[in-house]
Amino acid sequence: MLTAMAFRNISRNRRRSILSAIAIAVSALAIVFAFSLMNGLLSDLVGNVQNFVSGDIRIRHRDFDTYEYLTPLHLSVVEARNLQQQVEALPEVASAVTRISFPAVMYLSRSGGSESSESIPLQGIGVDFIHEERYQELSSLLRNGRLPNANSNEALIGSGFASRNNLIIGDSFTVLTTTRTRGSNAFTLEIVGIAQLPYNSLDSRAMLIPYDRAQYFLRMEEGATEILVKRAPSSSEEEALAAVNAVLEGPSEARSWRDIGLAFTYIQTATISYAIIALIFFLLASTVIVNTTMMVIFERIREIGTLSAMGMNPRTLVRLFFIEALFISIIGALCGALGGTLLSAIFGNIGIDFTNQLQGVDFEISNIIYPRPTALISLLVFLYSVVVSALATLLPSTRSARIRPVEALRRV
Amino acid sequence: MVLMLFLPLLEIGAIEAEEVITQMERNQTHGSSQIEGRFIIQDRFGSRESTFLSWSKGTEESLIEFTSPAERGQRILRTADEIYLYYPDAAELIRLQGAALRDSLLGSDVSYEDMTGNRGILDDYDATLEANEEILGRDCYVVKLTARVSNIAYPLQRLWIDSSDFVTRQSEQYALSGKLLKRSITLRTVRQAGKIFPVEFEIRDQLKKRSVTTVRVEDIAVDIPVADSRFSLESLSF
């Protein structure tokens, strides 16, 4: 009977019910979207770190990290290609790529004469474009041109780097760098591709060249600075790491991406920070829900007085308002959670461009973030919104139910 | 000729300070030269060697061509105060300027900047005779050089010039703050064409840990004909 009465009250005060439901829906939608955005941001960060920085597992010379600031190319992974094939053949491994990372300076002839007039720092990466395709579909990042051919003096550059230096497909530039023998070498490359590399510090500085040419230019012989490994989905990180370590010999060592640099620490910190931000968001949204629900109850004190005068006891009154709020919040939260999921899915496809906001940010966060909604996020937000809204009725309805009918009827 | 390249490091040298410098310059410079030599570079990672051929004419023109496998064909041309680099894999020459001049040559203790500014020392520095001191068993004049110009690699230098043969036995280069940047010691000299000049010397960049570069001249011919074209930009990349 109470349920029927609650339904009748909801439909009788349709505008008020709709407004309450909308307030709850908007809050739920905002929370779902914010959570999906944060989820997308973290996934993006993890993806970038794993694709470009460390893989799931990174193999390097054990002393390379200690002297990394000196660009110690001589502390390389020897027989890198053989090792990469061996590692890739492991059942615990999905794919592995060899890389040669090196800092360099680009010289640009602005006048077209023989004198170079401008030097610009850049990050060179020697990659095997065929293997790289299996590893991370590099071609999907292409905006113009094509991937460089093996054993050619061709380069793929970041779109930010290209636009900052007015470089287009077909342009050539000369790069000066330090070699494995700690001498220097310079070489001229032709730009055949421009890619939207995922994060700003890479897109604005990076130049990708064929692995075999990088080996030659840098006198690397058969060495690489690192091998990045992605584990098979069926293997745990620990299993994959143990399997890779088992095939290593000499001074090379494999490390999990969690133990490398600051990325994992940052991700851990970011997760905590985002959880705090989410909590604040939750609380803000809760105030909206609580406020709306309480206002509705206080607006109806006269009605409460009438019901009390007609003999409804306070407990039943509280239950009545609780059931009303529960229905409204279920409808509002459901619409909000679904709307938030839909909105996140739409932006998850088109992405949100943070290029301007991320200018100068030297971290592995992409300029375009794709929100990633999940069923868990939507479900949790739905339940949370329903619980908060329903509970928010308890205090005002309990207080209102205690007011004597005569006093309640006197209120406007 | 390689000696000419490192003139600011090695050259210096008077009873009056100016006289010591003039005698030293007269002793260590020559009309032209051809040298075959090697850099032996030791750092925290070990030792490596690079061999070279070099040619010079006067005090302002010189060319080094590396002959060791890792750098074969690479050339460094110095004309007046300009330095150009030629690399066989590069389609253009690189003119070093600004901060790039402070880069290390082959990762050694010698910077490209050390190869510039080879006008007469007294054109750029005021010389003061500080004392006589014994270095490596040789009596030397200690000459302090204070730069008169601002666009110079080392605002302050101190030279130990042999009082008998006017060879620079040791030199130190300082920053404006007085911090010691580099120290060079002559290990071996040779007498040729009536002149004595260093053929093996050791340079230590004081800002690098456990690093020392030895430049060893293995063959030298002075006052020989060297074509002017050897120092042209056209022949550099030919």
Concise overview:
With 412 residues, chain A is α+β, with helices and mostly antiparallel strands. Chain A has 14 helices and twelve strands. Chain A is elongated.
Structural class of the secondary elements of chain A? alpha+beta
Beta content of chain B: over 45%
The portion of residues assigned to helices of chain B is 10-25%
Shape of chain A: elongated
SS content category of chain B: mainly beta
Strand order of the largest sheet of chain B: 6-5-4-3-2-1-13-12-11-10-9-8-7
- Note the main sheet of chain A: 6 strands, mixed, barrel
> What's the N-to-C terminus distance of chain B?
21 Å
Radius of gyration from the alpha-carbon trace of chain A, in angstroms = 30 Å
Tell me the radius of gyration of chain B: 17 Å
The overall average pLDDT of chain A, rounded, is 85
State the helix count of chain A.
14
Strand order of the largest sheet of chain A: 2-3-8-5-7-6
What letter string, H or E per element, gives the SSE order of chain A? HHEHEEHEEHEEHEHEHEHHHEEHHH
Features:
heterodimer; A: alpha+beta; 6-stranded mixed beta barrel; two-stranded antiparallel sheet; 14 helices; B: 238 residues; mainly beta; 13-stranded antiparallel beta sheet; 5 helices; disordered N terminus
Structural account:
The complex is a heterodimer of chains A (412) and B (238). Chain A has 412 residues and is α+β, with helices and mostly antiparallel strands. Chain A is built from 14 helices and twelve strands. In chain A, the strands form two sheets. In chain A, strands 2-3-8-5-7-6 form a six-stranded mixed barrel. A two-stranded antiparallel ribbon of chain A has the order 11-12. The longest helix of chain A is centred in the first third of the chain and has 40 residues, at 14-53. The radius of gyration of chain A is 30 Å and the shape is elongated. Mean pLDDT of chain A is 85; it is low at 112-116. Helices cover 12% and strands 47% of the residues of chain B. Chain B has a 13-stranded antiparallel β-sheet. Chain B is globular and about 50 Å long. Classes of the chains: A alpha+beta (412), B mainly beta (238). The A-B interface holds A 67, 72, 74-75, 105, 107, 109, 114-117, 119, 153, 172, 174, 176, 178-179, 181-188, 217, 219 and B 41, 43, 45, 48, 50, 66, 70-71, 74, 85, 87, 89-95, 98, 100, 103, 106-107, 233, 237.
